[in-house]
Amino acid sequence: MNGRKYLLALWLSITLYAVSSFTVGPVGIASYEKTRGSLERLRTNMEELKAINHNLEGIMDALRYDSDTIMVYARELGYGAQDERFIRIVGLPGASKRRVAAGQLILYKKPETVSDRFLRVLSLSLGLTLFIVFSVFDYIGKKKRNPSDNFSKDQVFTAL
After folding, report:
1. 126 with 13: CB under 8 angstroms?
2. DSSP characters for 73-94?
3. Single pTM value for the model
């Protein structure tokens, strides 16, 4: 029966390490869920960037091949044809500036997890604590069973 207690301490420390590593460790379930959330944000951002790229390609093609589009953009910038004249009124806002968003920068953040080293130390300390507790109980149990090892009051006084 004595050996089983010590094996139980070893088994519990290994089990604690395995379960905690599987749930909150660097490659555990919590880390996986956080990484999966980041992946979804990155995929959404990629789709938005593809839509912006498609829009910009359409504008670029229109500027390359359509002279009317070039004239509209030039007028917005304050240019005109040779036979046109402009009257600028002070105090009025200028022409509308077309700005196309280039997208949003999203960086991957490594998920915060409990370090593997901490989990090892925690499980090892649990195993050692149980080992020490079981050893102390065994020692106390042996002392109670063998009272001859303890000195009686008479033996102490006769020795003095």
Report:
1. yes
2. HHHHTT---TT------TTS--
3. 0.57
Residue 125 phi/psi, 5° resolution? -65, -35
Q: Find, among 125, 93, 94, 89, the residue nearest to 9 by Cα.
A: 125
Closest Cα to residue 126, out of 10, 2, 6, 1?
10
Contact 109, 20 (CB under 8 A): no
**Residue 47, C-beta contacts closer than 8 angstroms, at least 6 positions apart:** none
Give the whole-angstrom CA distance, residue 73 versus residue 101. Answer: 17
Listed in sequence order, the residues at least 6 apart from 42 whose beta carbon sits closer than 8 Å to its beta carbon are 106, 108
The burial of 123, by beta-carbon neighbours within 10 Å (0-12 exposed, 13-18 middle, 19 or more buried), is given as buried
Across all residues in the chain, what is the average pLDDT? 81
Q: How far apart are CA 72 and CA 61, in angstroms?
A: 15
- The predicted pLDDT at position 156 comes to 47
Count CB atoms within 10 A of the CB of residue 78: 10
pLDDT in tens, 31-55: 899 889 889 999 999 999 999 999 9
Asked if residues 2 and 138 have their Cβ atoms less than 8 Å apart, the reply is yes
